[in-house]
Amino acid sequence: MKAVLKKERDVGFVIEDVPMPKIGDDEILVKVEVASICGTDVHIYDWNEWAQNRINPPLIVGHEFAGVVVEKGKEVKRINIGDFVSAETHIYCNHCDMCLMNHREVCRNLKILGVDTNGAFAEYVKIPERVAWVNPKEIPHKYASIQEPLGNAVDTVLSEDISGKTVLITGAGPIGLLAIGVARVFGATKIIVSDLSNYHLEIAKKMGADVVVNPKEANLREIVLNETNGLGVDVALEMSGAKSALSDALKLTKFLGRVSLLGLFDNNVEINLTDDVIFKKLRIYGITGRRIFETWQIVSDLLRSKRLDVSPVITHEFKLEEVEKGIKLMKSHQSGKILLHP
Ligand code: NAD
Ligand code: ZN
């Protein structure tokens, strides 16, 4: 089958014919219909420091996808051939203390699809039955392929109730953009979005942002205070991984507010804990992955009911072989989600 490989310990991907995956007794084989490119795939392509320490080539990359089950192992009971599935990409162990306490998102033995195991940028992918999520048939395949990042957005937005709240989202990459739509559906009263890319801010407006700000071109602090009666927002969602955006999120959240952190930082960050967190009595949440499978149920219902329209976030679709074109476009900040068709 055709697959996108990280073949050498170096920059780039290669497209190659590789043997079909052989499934184990507890695994299923999925024919990939659509996959989508994530920032992690870009890091693996670029061979950054994280990738050098984590990835063991040769590896089939990619983890966000939707497809149809074509084969199943002897022990597979819940999933049937012909099911239309996506996958929770965090392959949890189901026996550590965190898994036993129903917090599989922080499994201590976590393996990630397309990072630690062969992934989905291929004609077929094998996954353990336990991470398969059966999609309702009426969800379009291309929307089903972005449920994993949509799950990040849902888990971040809903780490506390959002209804009736004013919200600042720092970072309008694909996940921040999806979070705008989610916050709107769940009843946020005002959504202010910051990003350094005006292309992303245009999509943010389409997703329902009330106010968009490029902090390089305008005074974010002044705008947020103007929009919130001088108080600051009730909720900040940090979705950029930029230090200055973290500072914006903490400083512009009002007393007794909530800050949820999804963005990942390359290095340690310095914050004024005393003034910006403690004396304001902020509640701060670290978010990793999604709740398995509570978040998937919400994501599925949002798409099935058409309450959430994710179409503005999907800006490009390419053939699987054109993956490099997609990666380059993502690096130029002139794209939202990019889909790949095997
Ligand atoms: P992305 O890199 O595409 O988006 C980041 C956005 O932040 C970009 O649009 C960028 O222009 C913007 N940005 C950069 N500096 C900014 C600043 N100072 N102020 C405002 N915006 C700024 O990433 P994504 O795929 O949307 O993911 C968002 C973040 O979440 C990333 O940091 C990613 O690593 C992280 N992430 C975390 C998890 C988790 O489980 N915690 C999962 C997936 C992604
Ligand atoms: Zn575990």
From TrEMBL:
SUPFAM superfamilies: GroES-like, NAD(P)-binding Rossmann-fold domains. Transmembrane segments: none annotated. The keyword Translocase does not apply. Residues 10-340 form the Enoyl reductase (ER) domain. The keyword Oxidoreductase applies. Pfam families: ADH_N, ADH_zinc_N. Its EC number is 1.1.1.103. PROSITE patterns: ADH_ZINC (PS00059). InterPro entries: ADH-like_C (IPR013149), ADH-like_N (IPR013154), ADH_Zn_CS (IPR002328), ER (IPR020843), GroES-like_sf (IPR011032), L-Threonine_3-DHase (IPR004627), NAD(P)-bd_dom_sf (IPR036291), Zn_alcohol_dh (IPR050129). It is an enzyme of class 1 (oxidoreductase). GO terms for molecular function: L-threonine 3-dehydrogenase activity; zinc ion binding. Keywords: Cytoplasm, Metal-binding, NAD, Oxidoreductase, Zinc. It comes from the Bacteria. Its cofactor is Zn(2+). GO terms for biological process: L-threonine catabolic process. Belongs to the zinc-containing alcohol dehydrogenase family. This is L-threonine 3-dehydrogenase.
